[in-house]
Specification:
This protein has 466 residues and is of the alpha/beta class. Helices cover 29% and strands 24% of the residues. Strands 1, 2, 3, 4, 5, 6 and 16 form a 7-stranded mixed β-sheet that branches. A 6-stranded antiparallel β-sheet has the order 17-18-21-20-19-22, with helices on both faces.
Length: 466
């Protein structure tokens, strides 16, 4: 059978690609070996953020996990195969493989071969389980099966201090679980501003989490019931200490679902991590084949996957005549770690900006932000980084290349900064925009004003390494 766009995978990128194809008037076929919606809906963003909110509302463990299951069902109903078919998308449920047909990419599923003007590979990823001695022999948890728990574990060891590990450690501690968080790097959230990492660690410890940074797990073994509970585990650390817990959750990252989809066999080049090599327009080395979502190995975020799906389809259907090929710009994608306080960032950190280019930094501690004072939530800051424009210097405040916000509503506060980055707008546009007082976002205006004048004793300064 032939179509305009054939999509391999039914997660966020696949759904976005299918719906964008229909929006542009094309025919779409999506091949998925599981329920549509993918990891974000069933095991990622939806259940985790529901449990986080439930823990903040003071719900019990049972009620929080029950609410998560209900919300997953509600959102999954908007992404079902029947819903997509009603929107005009053909859905084939089965194990698909990328193949070559007539020199171009196609999808083989069962005895059918789906040919198309373009194929979007959106095969996603799965939790990475590192080769720690003994880990495979114990009943460990990942985000794939955490949500199936029906009883609250008395204690939990979490391996990995990235966004997932930090979010879940804090939420589960609020729900009455004794959590020990173990991170190999010297600090949590090692890709963020050092001050953001420090505030995250303080917030987790305040919630009752035992935070261990700069610690490597050298082995894992089943623990005696008297030490770690009936299904307990004991983790040996490289400093000679041990951590005993009823359960262990592995949250060290993701690995690609490349094996069963026949990607390498079809001729796609995979990088050393197993992700599909691709150009900025998301094209691969195989004619007519694009990649989107986690499989692209760029940003493993639902909204990034959604955007990639639309970029890929536009390049299949519209990249001709007056329409230029679209590019995926990771520097324009915001992301948020949903701890309390939230940590939101777009673009570079100050360390990254300090390498040259005349970057200036404007910063506002939350204890100088009126809204934070009214909420008694002053642990955090707003940091915005701008660089001169070619030929214009810092006229108009320059161009924003990075921002980090740590605050209760950081994710929402970052949105207007992300818009300015997307549009390439002068920083002054944010400063000139009238913000309601006293809102959280008022602090953004107060911060960018420092690029033009002294604001309550603060002015922008050169970027410096931490």
């Amino acid at each position: 059978m032939a179509t305009d766009v054939a999509i391999l995978g039914g997660g966020a990128a696949g759904l976005s690609a299918a719906r964008e194809t229909r929006r542009l008037g094309g025919r779409a076929v999506i091949v998925s070996n599981g329920p549509l919606g993918g990891d974000c809906t069933f095991t990622g963003c939806v259940p985790s953020k529901t449990v986080i909110e439930a823990s903040l509302a003071g719900l019990s463990f049972d009620d929080a996990f029950g609410r998560a299951r209900h919300v997953v069902e509600r959102i999954a109903s908007t992404e079902s195969a029947d819903r997509l078919r009603a929107e005009g998308v053909e859905v084939i449920e089965g194990e698909g493989r990328l193949v070559v047909d007539g020199g171009r990419g196609a999808i083989e599923v069962g005895e059918r071969t789906v040919t198309a003007r373009g194929v979007v590979v959106a095969t996603g990823s799965r939790p990475l389980v590192p080769p720690i001695p003994g880990l495979a022999e114990v009943d460990h948890l990942t985000t794939d099966d955490l949500w199936q728990l029906t009883e609250r574990p008395a204690s939990l060891a979490v391996i990995g201090g990235g966004a997932i590990g930090c979010e879940l450690s804090q939420a589960l501690a609020r729900l009455g679980v004794a959590v020990t968080l173990i991170e190999l790097a010297p600090r949590l959230l090692s890709n963020e501003e050092p001050e953001a990492s420090r505030l995250a660690a303080e917030a987790l410890r305040l919630a009752g989490v035992d935070v261990r940074t700069g610690a490597a797990v050298t082995s894992v073994a089943a623990g005696p019931g008297s030490v770690a509970g009936p299904s307990g585990v004991v983790l040996q650390l490289d400093d000679g200490t041990t951590v005993a817990a009823e359960r262990v959750l592995v949250a060290v990252g993701r690995s690609p679902n490349a094996g069963s989809a026949g990607l390498a066999e079809a001729g796609l080049e995979l990088d050393d991590r197993g992700y599909v090599s691709n150009d900025d327009d998301l094209s691969t080395g195989l004619a007519g084949v694009y990649v989107a979502g986690d499989a692209a190995g760029r940003l493993q975020l639902t909204h990034a996957a959604d955007h990639m799906g639309r970029v890929a389809v536009n390049n299949v259907l519209r990249a001709r005549g007056p329409f230029r090929r679209q590019r995926f710009r990771a520097d324009q994608i915001p992301w948020v770690t949903f701890t309390t306080p939230e940590i939101a960032r777009i673009g570079v950190t100050e360390d990254q900006a300090a390498g040259g280019g005349g970057a200036l930094v404007a910063e506002l501690p939350l204890d100088e932000h009126d809204r934070a004072l009214t909420a008694d939530a002053v642990d955090g800051f707003i940091k915005i980084i701008a660089v001169p424009r070619p030929g214009l210097g810092m006229t108009g405040g320059g161009r924003i290349i990075g921002a980090t916000i740590v605050a209760e509503r950081a994710g929402e506060m970052l949105a207007e900064v992300a818009l300015a980055v997307r549009l390439g707008a002068f920083t002054g546009r944010l400063a000139q925009t009238v913000h309601a007082y006293p809102t959280w976002s008022y602090g953004v205006a107060k911060t960018v004003g420092q690029f033009f004048t002294e604001v309550e004793g603060r002015t922008a300064r050169p970027a410096r390494r931490s």
